């Protein structure tokens, strides 16, 4: 009986190990194939600039999934400089989500949680955040400071355009939005 229990334990251990290995491989696959969200956003173009997505998938496969939502993406690296995400006030709905390189959401907000409907967010490394808190620059008094635990990340800015008459305003809002590098001394 003892020998039979050992054989069953070995089989169960092997099956559990195989299941865990398969799960790890499946979850790691996007990272190794370059199909993860960060890599796709980086392929849209230069860093520290919002790139507007079309309604149909582009060469990388990114697009507006909802015909009533207009989207822009920006990637940044906080190794040397922080990133500042800004836009003028907009009468319609907008939302911002910030992700780290592994596509973990770090921060999100929308027009209702912003000050007067204006987007003003600084994404910085922990060291840069400490410098900002120690000696905040005058121009960043109303900015929301977001600490990014990794050096690289990306932002997704969305706005609604549920009617054709609102599409031009939504596109203009996204075109005016800024994703710029910010030197913090």
Low-confidence stretches: none
* Morphology call: extended
Mean pLDDT: 87
How would you characterize the largest beta sheet? 5 strands, antiparallel
> Gap between N and C termini, in Å?
71 Å
Order of SSEs, N→C?
HHEEEEEEHEEHE
Structural class, judged by helices and strands?
alpha+beta
- Our count of helices gives 4
Approximate helicity band: 25-40%
Instruction: Tell me the total number of β-strands.
Output: 9
From the alpha carbons, calculate the radius of gyration and give it in angstroms: 22 Å
Strand order of the largest sheet: 1-2-8-4-5
Strand content: 25-35%
Q: Which helices and strands, and how do they pair?
A:
Blueprint: H1 2-33, H2 37-42, E1 51-52, E2 69-77, E3 82-87, E4 94-100, E5 105-110, E6 119-124, H3 126-134, E7 144-147, E8 152-160, H4 167-176, E9 178-182
Parallel strand pairs: 6-7
Antiparallel strand pairs: 1-2, 2-8, 3-6, 3-9, 4-5, 4-8
Task: Produce a short descriptive summary.
The chain is α+β, with helices and mostly antiparallel strands. The chain has helices at residues 2-33, 37-42, 126-134, 167-176; strands at 51-52, 69-77, 82-87, 94-100, 105-110, 119-124, 144-147, 152-160, 178-182. The longest helix has 32 residues, at 2-33.
Would you give an account of this structure?
The chain has 185 residues and is of the alpha+beta class. It has helices at 2-33, 37-42, 126-134, 167-176; strands spanning 51-52, 69-77, 82-87, 94-100, 105-110, 119-124, 144-147, 152-160, 178-182. The strands form two sheets. The chain has a five-stranded antiparallel beta sheet. Strands 7-6-3-9 form a four-stranded mixed beta sheet. Strand 4 and strand 5 (105-110) form a beta hairpin. The protein is extended.
